[in-house]
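stage 2 :: seqdesign
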């Protein structure tokens, strides 16, 4: 009985940790980007205050360091210019690496 309980516990915690390692699904990614205000300045295929994601995808196409560059961009608040005024780029509202990489993969696929 005890052994069975322990096995069940082990299985449950395994299921929990492995589901946390899965990347965001489409709805989760959209919600994260909305929550982080990305949608205010970016769209997939038209320029707003920031470049269209298509433009960014084209800029980084075939570049091996694309993910690393964008990861830094989204996590370190680099200085940018909006309407001629300098401000800090927003940081994405999560520290979950897998989630940030899911957003980056989506941007690079535009
Ligand atoms: C206040 C407006 C604003 C918000 C909010 C914003 N961005 Fe940006 N973003 C910009 C501007 C302006 C640039 C262009 C910076 C430059 O080229 O110097 C930029 C650049 C980028 C780039 C291109 C970086 C590169 O190296 O070419 C990506 C990708 C990006 N933003 C993604 C995001 C994501 C994802 C979010 C949400 C977490 C976000 N942005 C939120 C304005 C914004």
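stage 2 :: out
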């Amino acid at each position: 009985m005890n052994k069975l309980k322990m096995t069940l516990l082990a299985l449950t915690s395994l299921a929990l940790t492995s589901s946390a390692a899965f990347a965001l699904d489409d709805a989760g990614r959209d919600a994260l980007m909305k929550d982080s205000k990305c949608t205010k300045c970016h769209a997939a295929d038209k320029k707003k205050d920031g470049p269209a994601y298509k433009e960014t995808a084209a800029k980084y196409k075939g570049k091996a360091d694309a993910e690393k560059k964008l990861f830094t961009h989204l996590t370190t608040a680099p200085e940018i210019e909006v309407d001629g005024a300098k401000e800090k780029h927003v940081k994405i509202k999560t520290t979950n690496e897998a989630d940030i990489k899911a957003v980056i993969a989506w941007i690079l696929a535009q």
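stage 3 :: structure notes
- Helices lie at 2-21, 26-35, 38-41, 53-60, 66-75, 97-108.
- The first strand starts at residue 79 and ends at 82.
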